[in-house]
């Protein structure tokens, strides 16, 4: 069996087990996918150190797998990924990501949300600081991501932040920019959520380069 920390290209039956709602996705496969995409985001420079968090919903079960608190997403071990209920039920969640409320709010916003990724992607963070509407500047971004929502600052892990992000996702946003706190991308699966985060970051870099040229940098 593949170790959860293995650096492998996930395709074929492994990916289909997560993408297809009728497929029987095992706990180990979800852990493997979360490990793979954590390393992919780290390699892309979208997360560093213990920042960021990822989760994926278990099909046909009221549960998700989510990364633990203060862990490097580049080298996730099996014990760094926890299964928790989609809704708060008194289960001890002190060891999981502080952003658990935001992940839960995203899943509550619609059945189509199967994965949630939060990063401190530098270009997306900067775009939010400049209060630039990324979707309006680049129409292709809007076509791919629908509305790119911008929400005001709220403390990490707070219900206020969770409510803002959950509302934005419920209104159709696939990418949500958090003031001074990075971005959240959702998708039907981890592959789609990761693609959306990467597209948003690349697009934000293009806009920032244009601003720099206009300013004579």
Describe the structure.
The protein contains eight helices and seven strands, in the order ααβββαβαααβαββα. It has 217 residues and is α+β, with helices and mostly antiparallel strands. It has helices at residues 12-19, 27-43, 100-108, 122-129, 134-137, 139-145, 159-170, 190-214, and strands at 53-57, 63-67, 81-85, 115-119, 148-151, 175-178, 183-187. A seven-stranded mixed sheet has the order 3-2-1-4-7-6-5, sandwiched between helices. The radius of gyration is 17 Å and the shape is globular. The protein starts with 11 loop residues before the first helix and ends with a helix. It has a single domain (12-214), classed as 3-Layer(aba) Sandwich (L-fuculose-1-phosphate Aldolase), CATH 3.40.225. Mean pLDDT is 87; it is low at 1-10 and 17-24. 43% of the residues are buried. The longest helix has 25 residues, at 190-214.
Q: What is the gist of this entry?
A:
With 217 residues, this protein is α+β, with helices and mostly antiparallel strands. The chain has eight helices and seven strands.
What's the helix and strand layout?
Elements: H1 12-19, H2 27-43, E1 53-57, E2 63-67, E3 81-85, H3 100-108, E4 115-119, H4 122-129, H5 134-137, H6 139-145, E5 148-151, H7 159-170, E6 175-178, E7 183-187, H8 190-214
Parallel strand pairs: 5-6
Antiparallel strand pairs: 1-2, 1-4, 2-3, 4-7, 6-7
Helix pairs in contact: 2-8, 3-7, 4-8
Short key terms for the protein model shown above:
alpha+beta; L-fuculose-1-phosphate Aldolase; 7 strands
């Amino acid at each position: 069996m593949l170790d959860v920390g293995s650096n492998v290209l996930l395709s074929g039956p492994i990916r289909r087990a997560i993408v297809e709602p009728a497929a029987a996705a095992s706990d180990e496969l979800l852990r493997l996918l979360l490990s793979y995409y954590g390393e992919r985001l780290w390699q892309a420079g979208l997360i560093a150190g213990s920042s960021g968090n990822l989760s994926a919903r278990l099909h046909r079960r009221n549960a998700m797998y989510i990364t633990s608190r203060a862990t490097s997403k580049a080298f996730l071990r099996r014990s760094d990924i926890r299964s928790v209920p989609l809704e708060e039920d008194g289960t001890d969640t002190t060891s999981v990501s502080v952003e658990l409320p935001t992940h839960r709010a995203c899943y509550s916003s619609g059945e189509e949300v199967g994965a949630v990724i939060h990063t401190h992607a530098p270009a997306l963070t900067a775009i939010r600081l400049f209060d630039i509407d990324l979707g309006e500047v680049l129409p292709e971004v809007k076509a791919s991501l629908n509305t790119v929502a911008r929400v005001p600052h709220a403390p990490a892990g707070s219900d206020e932040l969770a409510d803002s992000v959950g509302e934005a996702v419920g209104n159709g946003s696939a990418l949500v920019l958090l003031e001074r706190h990075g971005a959240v991308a959702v998708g039907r699966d981890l592959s789609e959520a990761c693609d959306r985060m990467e597209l948003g970051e690349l697009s934000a870099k293009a806009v920032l380069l244009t601003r720099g040229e206009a300013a004579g940098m």
